[in-house]
Amino acid sequence: MAAAGAGVGPGAAVRIGTHDGAFHCDEALACALLRLLPRFRDAEVLRTRDPQLLAQCEVVVDVGGEYDPERHRYDHHQRSFTHSMRSLRPDKPWSTKLSSAGLIYCHFGSRILAELLGQPEDGPVVAALYDQLYESFVEEIDAIDNGIAQAEGEPRYALSSTLSARVGRLNPRWNDPDQDTEAGFQRAMELVQREFLERVDHCHRSWLPARALVLESIQRRFEVDGSGVVLELPQGGCPWREHLFRLERELALPQPLLLVLFPDRGGQWRVQSVPTGPHSFRSRGFIGGNRTREGALEMARRTLEQRGVEEPPPGTGTPKGTL
Fold first, then answer.
1. Are strands 269-273 and 73-74 parallel, antiparallel or unpaired?
2. What rounded mean pLDDT belongs to the chain?
């Protein structure tokens, strides 16, 4: 860990500083994430804008007007701040401007996951989950806090149940006689930490095993059919779409996978076309079923024949044609 904040002497109580008043999801998550580390587990969260009090904190998030990771200062409101995950870690693809939550995750996320999972910080499990949790959890909070719309144009419907929205509703109502925010901020930290831990558990116990299953199936796809474009999953119910598209990119497959073969929960076999994108309902053309694996595979092969997909020449691994 980098050097402690200015004014923090040995033996002093560990403090995390953030601003007082109305609170948002990003600083609540930043503080909650830090408290998952042994160093900050029992840290006091001091909510103030007093520079002298903030100087006594080991870490300061979302206030203070400076980003200095060597001194553990993590504000993003200053005009000079333009950092994204990609600018701080060039090996990452995300260009969304970071909030205090994203800053803490960027600098401490791997350490937090290693601590929670009992895995090496530089190991493959932490590396995979670090990326997935940023993309599926933290980036949304960064974007909302920085006022970045999810898409161009007018939204078709309102989103009022996001984590950021639920945290916002923990602030006192405008017409409440008591406008104290301390109790609400404590509830906000508990809420975001609980949701983060639930997401970590899901990614570790469901998302990661599904990815491993799809990866193994991709690696043995030529054993299923010589075209190399049929993926066979050994069990049904696996959420394969997201992993398939991501692994196609990561592995730089020479030809997209076109059909997926899998057993359903009733013991039947299904053949399904790969959709045009991970969030698309449009498929590449075919879905069917059969009582046996052999029957379903034959259906898949006939579909490929109708579409002009051929087995690749020996040694090339690249089939011709497409669906």
1. unpaired
2. 91
